[in-house]
Structure to design on (435 residues):
């Protein structure tokens, strides 16, 4: 098979591209708040917490069989949770033990908003085969877990990094409150039981100072070192005694490049409002002069404000075209360039070639974005994609990959104009003439 190298990856015959091969992309799933804020009756090991996440994610992304069982291959499961040991017996025992753990659901919800059941197991049936794990959900929780209304995005790339069960439990509790940057206050004894299990009644953790030194402080240190958040413990006291605790939650951000011109900072903010990912907006500001960017931006604003013209459905895509073609407010509306002469078959060939070219460009564009912007784009794509088989998953088919980048190319740059197709066709002819 002959492969054609492109700037964004490897272009295969038929326009298929080898995707996601170079850079680790976010691997999020929606975890229902009822599970995030649950209290297990028994302690959960690190492996069991990771297993539960992998099974939840697999169930959200895949359909069960006709009997209501989900299946996940052992190799895929090990990769998903970062289990690099050959000790399959330990994996089997942990999976089977998870089947018997009872949870109190959403224990920090107001009393009038709690679900009607008090407790249940999450995975009542588990089978460990030689090459796969099969499991079922609690009938009470199944629909809630698969289609949660209130949830947090849990990134499995972060989950795999944790080496302490308590760290993972604390981090997941905090992620839910990322947008408001501070968690709910919880009596420290209740929080202890949420993290260590309700059976955590040994003398070691009967006093807050020991729970703090042995569990909270090491967990916070690992979270701040390994995750994409920085959390800080907040203690509230009654007299001299700590009564309730909470956490401040701040998402880490990549260091912003120094913008010497304040005007560029304002333009970056305007581009983000248009729907341009922030990481792309920063790159645009570094690779173009202020006047060029402002000219394209003002041109786009004028076009949007023009009530006599058709509505601009995708301002970000329109701006990218204005920037590429060096439009400016003083420019007249570009005249339509005559379409290339030739048969309809040749026109179709040009469009097909252009589409293949755009797939490669979309892959390259996606790889250049920051992980947070990538995660947001993937989530948006999956939400609008009605076919489960075409949604992006950890193990994604070629059809889904191509579908994603076709969607990304169109949402980023819009449909090609006659001028763009003509310019592309001319470029092809020049390239052929050099061969």
């Amino acid at each position: 098979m002959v492969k054609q190298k492109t700037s964004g990856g490897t272009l295969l015959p038929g326009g298929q591209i080898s995707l996601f091969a170079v850079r680790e992309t976010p691997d999020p799933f929606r975890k229902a708040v009822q599970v995030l804020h649950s209290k297990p009756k028994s302690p959960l090991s690190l492996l069991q917490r990771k297993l539960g996440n992998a099974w939840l994610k697999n169930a959200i992304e895949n359909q069960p069989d006709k009997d209501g069982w989900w299946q996940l291959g052992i190799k895929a499961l090990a990769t998903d949770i970062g289990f690099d040991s050959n000790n399959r017996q330990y994996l089997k025992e942990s999976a089977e033990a998870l089947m018997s753990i009872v949870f109190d659901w959403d224990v920090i919800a107001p009393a009038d908003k709690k679900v009607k059941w008090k407790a249940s197991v999450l995975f009542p049936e588990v089978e460990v085969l030689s090459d796969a794990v099969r499991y079922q959900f609690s009938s009470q929780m199944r629909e809630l877990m698969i289609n949660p209304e209130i949830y947090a995005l849990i990134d499995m790339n972060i989950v795999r990094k944790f080496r302490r069960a308590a760290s993972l439990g604390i981090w997941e509790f905090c992620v839910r409150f990322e947008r408001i940057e501070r968690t709910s206050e919880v009596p420290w004894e209740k929080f202890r039981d949420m993290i260590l299990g309700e059976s955590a009644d040994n003398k070691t953790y009967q006093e807050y100072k020991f729970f703090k030194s042995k569990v909270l402080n090491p967990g916070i240190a690992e979270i701040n070192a390994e995750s994409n958040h920085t959390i800080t413990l907040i203690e509230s006291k009654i007299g001299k005694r700590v009564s309730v605790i909470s956490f401040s939650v701040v998402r880490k951000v990549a260091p912003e490049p120094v913008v010497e011109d304040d005007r560029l900072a304002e333009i970056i903010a305007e581009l983000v409002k248009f729907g341009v990912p922030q990481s792309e907006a920063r790159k645009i500001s570094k690779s173009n002069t202020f006047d060029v960017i402002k000219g394209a931006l003002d041109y786009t604003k004028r076009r949007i404000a023009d009530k006599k013209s058709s509505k601009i459905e995708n301002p970000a895509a329109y701006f990218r075209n204005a920037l590429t073609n060096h439009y400016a407010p003083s420019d007249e509306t570009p005249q339509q360039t005559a379409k290339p002469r030739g048969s309809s078959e040749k026109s179709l060939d040009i469009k097909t070639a252009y589409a293949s070219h755009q797939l490669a460009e979309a892959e390259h564009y996606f790889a250049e974005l920051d992980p947070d912007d990538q995660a947001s784009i993937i989530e948006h794509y999956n939400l609008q994609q009605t076919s489960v088989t075409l949604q992006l998953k950890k193990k994604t088919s070629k059809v889904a990959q191509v579908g994603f980048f076709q969607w990304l190319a169109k949402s980023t740059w819009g449909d090609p104009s006659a001028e763009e197709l003509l310019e592309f066709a001319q470029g092809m002819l020049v390239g052929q003439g050099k061969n």
Observations:
- The chain has a mean pLDDT of 78.
